[in-house]
């Protein structure tokens, strides 16, 4: 209730008492994972919205969804297959260089090798990272501070019956996920690790993995360290004010991506919600053709389960 009543300028740590054990063991790990921002800077309002759609809706809304193979097989390949089945033309390796703007609509998509003129009934859904959108669209304000994520992927065979994922309290690793022949570590708001050398991080994270999954501490298995320095925007109250709406000043241009004001953090769920909302707005406009340019994967630090199917029905009645 304190989060629900929080002032929009309040942070998680300012609303929830950091001295409590519950904060250290539950609220702070959840906030950091969901917001990819430390509790001292993370927005209490945004954290509340996430909790309201997970814990606030009961156990059925908190079931983790795990891909049988990978995220590409779960999301990307089915989406491409459906688009092709509907007659969509998909072009890879075509970088959008510019948009041609008129008084109230855009008239051309300028790619590296070709320009596409838009009819009056055509529209564009621009789904690119925030910095690219700001370069393409005049006077567009977007979040401009970012937070890193560090991942470590260890090639090893977990014990039979090992859990699909583990949350770590008091370690270097935060979340450990079991995949086929791999154990993966995710650390959100990873400013304290992003400048450290990969061999050092490999050994540091493996100590936590070995304890959590009851594996030998030595030898350390082959590993890959991945650092995303600009993984998501910083989910602070100040940065939330910079999230744009999906509609723009041009009637045939819509925005989509995890950075637009979806009410969710910069997660996969936020990006999906923006896509459904953009599709709903495009459907309401009834254009002959809507061009979707770019991609925004919504690389969220925690894939918090939301009721995407219900969101689909709300967005597309």
What does this structure look like?
The chain has 317 residues and is α+β, with helices and mostly antiparallel strands. The chain folds into 3 domains: 12-62, no CATH class; 118-144 and 242-315, no CATH class; 146-233, Polyamine Oxidase, Chain A, domain 2. The protein contains 9 helices and 11 strands. α8 packs parallel to α9.
Structural key phrases:
317 residues; alpha+beta; Polyamine Oxidase, Chain A, domain 2; 3 domains; globular; disordered C terminus
Report the total helices. 9
Structural class: alpha+beta
Taken from the alpha-carbon principal axes, the silhouette is globular
- Rg calculated over all Cα atoms: 21 Å
Whole-number mean pLDDT: 89
Beta-strand content estimate: 15-25%
Number of domains: 3
Largest sheet: 5 strands, antiparallel
SSE string:
HHHHEEEEHEEEEHEHEHEH
Strand order of the largest sheet: 6-7-8-5-9
* Total number of beta strands: 11
Distance between the termini: 32 Å
Summarize the amount of helix as a percent range.
25-40%
Q: Low-confidence runs (pLDDT<50, min 5 residues)?
A: 296-317
